[in-house]
Design brief:
- The chain is mostly helical.
- It has 22 helices and no strands.
- It is 70% helix and 0% strand.
């Protein structure tokens, strides 16, 4: 807050000096100290072109570092100043001698430079430079990674980090001896890769996927979960990534997670959600041969068995995956019925949801899950009918 207050005070003085000087200096040129006193409309300046400045357009973002020029700061300061006080201050400034005025300009310029907020790209570069410092303390390494975790969320920032060579830096951190460093690094890669083909491509080319898949086996549940999140982000809607995933035994990794009740519930949720996503992608690529893994009976049973969980979120994600799997041509209805016992599972879920429906706190969500369960039941019955209609 002290930093912001100092900035506002400087902006007010800066504004006063601009108003006072504009009545004396009409040359519309830069001072010897680089300050620009504009007395005419700037071509291409949206604040001028609209006829009046929009006071609401530069509030939190501007204080956060959104001012791209001193002109923008000046416009904001004028819009947030008391006109009467501004006029009084301007009269005081007019009494200054040219030498005193220029000295004051220099002082303000120096203060503005100190208070100037760096851009996101500059902040990312600072954090990346820190990470490459071998003598950096573990605490500072965590801090640098946490800053990047926030900064890479906007897609433009994620792309900028790539251009700065940041992906290679983060991927190297995946091999760090500290579990938290590995965890946050995986988290950064996941955020940066989410729905971002540009980052996905570069991360895959740099070999991030294989390292992340190994991390999924970590004894730390937090690290494993964040690593799986990054794996999912790298291969979602990315055929090259999915091919590499299966080449790295991704099917076995999924099978192990889904069939092991001792695995952290968060990891199982993410795994079955990825299954549903991968199958949906397969359904969209009608010209592609269906993956044999998706019709493996042990795999199918591990997905159906998830519906027996007491975790409603896991059940819902499992139902989505089953609904998609039922639409594949290579999955067999009789495997779902006789080996996976899908009919029994759906009936069990129905009774569970009926009981939960009595609780007001869950009613809306439970209604949605029941609607999904009915969709799965209809798809299952249709697949069974089609199978029985085919002559043996």
């Amino acid at each position: 807050m002290a930093r912001i207050s100092a900035l506002l005070a400087s902006l007010l003085l800066f504004t006063v000096m601009a108003v006072a000087t504009s009545s004396v200096e009409r040359e519309n040129k830069s001072s010897s100290f680089g300050l620009f006193w504009s007395t005419a409309k700037e071509e291409g300046d949206p604040l001028h072109n609209t006829g009046q400045a929009d006071d609401s357009a530069a509030t939190a973002d501007d204080i956060d570092g959104g001012f791209s020029t001193l002109e923008g700061m000046l416009q904001w300061a004028i819009g947030h100043s008391d006109p009467v006080k501004l006029k009084e201050k301007a009269q005081d400034v007019q009494r200054l001698s040219p030498l005193e005025l220029r000295q004051r300009q220099l002082e303000i310029q120096e203060l503005m430079e100190k208070l100037k907020m760096p851009s996101d790209a500059q902040l990312m570069q600072i954090a990346l430079d820190d990470l490459q410092n071998l003598s950096l303390s573990l605490e500072d390494r965590h801090r640098a990674l946490e800053e990047l975790l926030i900064l890479v969320e906007p897609i433009d920032n994620a792309n900028d980090m790539c251009k700065l060579g940041g992906l290679g830096v983060i991927i190297r951190e995946l091999d760090h001896s500290d579990s938290d460093v590995r965890k946050i690094s995986a988290w950064i890669l996941g955020k940066a890769s989410q729905n971002n083909p540009y980052v996905q491509k570069q991360a895959l080319e740099l070999g991030a996927l294989a390292t992340l898949m190994k991390m999924v086996n970590s004894s730390s549940a937090d690290e494993a979960t964040k690593a799986f999140y990054a794996v999912s982000a790298l291969i979602r809607n990315n055929m090259a990534g999915q091919q590499l995933f299966f080449a790295e035994a991704g099917d076995k990794m999924l099978q192990d997670i889904l069939s092991s009740p001792s695995v952290d519930i968060r990891l199982r949720r993410k795994a079955v959600f990825l299954v549903g996503d991968l199958v949906e992608c397969q359904l969209e690529k009608v010209d592609k041969t269906e993956m044999p893994f998706f019709s493996n009976r042990l795999f199918l049973k591990s997905v159906v068995d998830l519906t027996a969980s007491s975790d409603l979120d896991l059940q819902e994600k499992a139902l989505v995956a089953i609904k998609n799997l039922l639409q594949l041509k290579t999955t067999e209805a009789m495997v779902f019925e006789e080996f996976c016992r899908l009919g029994e599972a759906l009936e069990r879920i129905k009774k569970q949801l009926e009981n939960l429906m009595l609780e007001d706190d869950h009613r809306e969500y439970v209604t949605d899950v029941e609607s999904l369960r009915k969709e799965v039941e209809r798809a299952f019955q249709a697949k069974l009918e089609n199978a029985r209609a085919v002559p043996t």
